[in-house]
Predict the structure.
Amino acid sequence: MSQIPIALELYSVRDDLARDVRGTLQAVARMGYTGVEFAGPPRHAAAELRALLDEFGLACAGWHVPFTLVQDDKLDETIAFHNELGNDKLIIPGIPAELRQSRADWLKLAAFFNRLAEKLAAHKMVTGYHNHHVEFAPLDGELPWDTFLGNTDPSVIMQLDTGNAVFGGAAILPLFEKYPGRAVTVHLKPYSFSAAKANPADDHAGFRPIIGEDETPWGEVFHACETVGGTEWYIVEYESDAYPPLEAVDRCLRALRAMGK
């Protein structure tokens, strides 16, 4: 089996988490997940969350931190929160549309992330960026993904979301080779071209199959992560509606275990 542990992106079960944070974390641990990645503005005190993680034997694999919370007026408060939680990976899950309209905008964002990475390094924390699909549509002659990663420090994590990238038209396997050692955390999100083709009017159709029922070349993805990616965490993310959320992420984990992960 792979030595890379598997975490759950809690956005996958966000409604359950909002209703019952303790019960949801307990359910995730009982499924066999090793860790979790939180998302969004904190709704609970860091000490409360850390106590729950400790109680259920879960590690914090990161947090999807809103872009607003890493600006200068909020950064000290954000650092203090994550220090108390015990989280060292502050991943930015998206950029406001008005800030990414051109290649020049992406260069400004790269410079911002470099400054942020330097500030966080003093606290033994790192930052990173999580893709959607817009990063793989050419902008002013270059893919935003390449503009960003080509101009950020190697310490800035390339959190590749496999499903989002494939939906955006990316060939995902070459990305590991192009940016070696930067795929520190990877979102395992399924995407099915056949499901999308069967439902052309539904942009979300390709995301409905769970891991293993899609056409992602998972074996090759794992090989890339485990050889050149520098991957420390596999993070399952499933956002569709084929199953109730907790059932869906349980099915995804069982599929990964069947693949030897």
Notes: The CA atoms of residues 9 and 37 lie 5 Å apart.
